[in-house]
Hints:
Number of strands: 0
Low-confidence stretches: none
Shape: elongated
Structural class: mainly alpha
Largest sheet: none
Amino acid sequence: xxxxxxxxxxxxxxxxxxxxxxxxxxxxELVRAGNPRPSVADVAERSGISHRxxxxxxxxxxxxxxxxxxxxEAAVAPMFTDTIARNTPLADRxxxxxxxxxxxxxxxxxxxxxxxxxxxxxxxxxxxxxxSRGFLRVQVNKLFAAELDAMDPVRAASIAAVLDVVCSFxxxxxxxxxQGLSQDHAAAALVESIMQLLG
Length: 199
């Protein structure tokens, strides 16, 4: 009897976990499809989970959004990996970085926009954006350390700051969305800008 009760309890936990993941994945699918703030009704319909059940898994929509952002970050974590060789010519490093950033940001764009909209009201989301930005900033500084080290320290600090902005999600999103540049045109503009800063 005890074993049966434990099996039943484990089954309920597994079903609850599956349903919770289904809700989060439905939320992410809706965001990626262009709905930046899906309603609970939208999420319930997409996931096949009842509206009431959604609130059994999440205290409110903000908790659901935070969980979805975390799930997205875990899924794209390998894309943040720095695999660019630092001993290759500058032009090769610049092109590789630009290609890498465009691919990464294209993948995370809908959820990245959502996280930036939530950040002013949600310290957890804001802290995660700060952590991510810091990682990407260090990546750029390491990749171009040889060029930056050859500069006067004050100029190097200024150039590093501008490089960080040029290579950021926000700048690339502006190029792609507000300026309407294709991925190829955005890449060419970024490569030229970075080369001018470092050349």
